[in-house]
């Protein structure tokens, strides 16, 4: 009798465990795969992705219920990462490595901030495309570097719609074998002091690659060249705010290895005090402000997860001495 009860219990657990594969859940997952053009190596991989999708969607619903009760300051939503487990996310976004000292230059002269709310993009009337690095290559270092230079170039040339620049060139030509794993923006800037950055039209981005490609050398002889770059000391958010106020896009390293960050949809993101892992995603800080409804100060950052992630590709992160944002911060100084 005891064995029969154990068998029945196991059968019920297995039935519940496989319940995600039926009815509306299956249709929702099929719609998800079509929307994000998902392809899986085999049935087993697809089944695991299906399980992750249902699990993550349930987590999102639970989190948003907490947000509606004012127990959270941001909302989450299904996006291109919703078929990944936390373990897969950690593997996709490893910690960046720094092996060469920065060729730091004296920063551009700046003035102290006077505005409580400031945004480079809207303030300068720029139209900037939000890029999508895809779900196969940890290439934010290249996308952030290209976007920071693109923004600065638009400001310096008074071009309100600057031409998008090629992150793929940086991945292929400056990646040094780690373009999809542990590379960092400083490597991109060092490379661009020697050669030019092509436009994305001339050297197209390819977010379907899981490894860096072969450098197309005839495309990098012309383009925007970086004369100098500067860095900000870790934790110096006062300097970070000052440079942003002076229309300087600053790249920072941020830990993406949490469901909250990966599924972020809107609001002011407050990271958990403890995380299971620390990886690297590079963001371009373009502004700061205050959310009156939440009574929170925030940074506005441009990510490279496409426009379906976050607030049209941007994230607002809490601005507080308890949560310093300036980490391995770097910015183009002179083009």
UniProtKB/TrEMBL annotation:
Region forming the signal peptide: 1-19
Similarity comment: Belongs to the peptidase C1 family.
Biological process terms in GO annotation: proteolysis
Ranges of residues in domain Cathepsin propeptide inhibitor: 29-89
Name this protein carries in UniProt: Uncharacterized protein
InterPro entries, sorted: Papain-like_cys_pep_sf, Peptidase_C1A, Peptidase_C1A_C, Peptidase_C1A_papain-like, Prot_inhib_I29
EC number: 3.4.-.-
GO molecular function: cysteine-type peptidase activity
Peptidase C1A papain C-terminal domain location: 114-333
The keyword tRNA processing is annotated on this UniProt entry: no
Keywords: Hydrolase, Signal
Enzyme type, top EC level: hydrolase
Source organism (scientific name): Drosophila willistoni
């Amino acid at each position: 009798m005891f064995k029969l009860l154990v068998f029945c219990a196991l059968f019920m657990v297995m039935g519940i465990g496989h319940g995600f594969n039926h009815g509306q859940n299956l249709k929702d997952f099929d719609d998800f795969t079509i929307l994000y053009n998902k392809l899986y190596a085999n049935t087993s991989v697809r089944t695991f992705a299906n399980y992750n999708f249902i699990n993550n969607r349930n987590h999102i619903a639970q989190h948003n219920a907490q947000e509606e009760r004012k127990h959270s300051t941001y909302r989450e939503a299904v996006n291109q990462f919703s078929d990944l487990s936390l373990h897969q996310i950690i593997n996709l976004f490893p910690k960046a490595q720094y092996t060469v000292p920065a060729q730091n230059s004296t920063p551009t002269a700046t003035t102290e901030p006077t505005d409580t709310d400031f945004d480079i993009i809207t303030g300068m009337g720029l139209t900037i495309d939000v890029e999508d690095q895809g779900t196969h290559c940890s290439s934010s270092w290249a996308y952030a570097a290209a976007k920071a230079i693109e923004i600065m170039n638009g400001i310096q040339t008074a071009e309100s719609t600057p031409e998008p620049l090629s992150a793929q060139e940086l991945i292929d030509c400056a990646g040094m074998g780690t373009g999809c794993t542990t590379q960092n923006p400083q490597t991109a800037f060092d490379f661009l002091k020697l050669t030019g950055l092509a436009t994305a039209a001339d050297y197209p981005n390819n977010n379907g690659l899981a490894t860096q490609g072969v450098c197309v050398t005839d495309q990098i002889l012309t383009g925007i060249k970086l004369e100098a770059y500067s860095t900000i000391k870790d934790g110096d958010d006062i300097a970070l705010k000052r440079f942003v106020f002076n229309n300087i896009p600053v790249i920072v390293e941020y830990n993406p290895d949490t469901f909250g960050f990966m599924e972020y949809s809107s609001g002011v993101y407050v990271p958990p005090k403890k995380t299971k892992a620390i990886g690297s995603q590079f963001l371009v800080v373009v502004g700061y402000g205050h959310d009156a409804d939440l009574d929170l100060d925030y940074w506005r950052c441009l990510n490279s997860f496409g426009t379906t992630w976050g607030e049209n590709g941007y994230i607002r992160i809490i601005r507080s001495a308890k949560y310093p944002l300036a980490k391995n911060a770097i910015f183009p100084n002179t083009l």
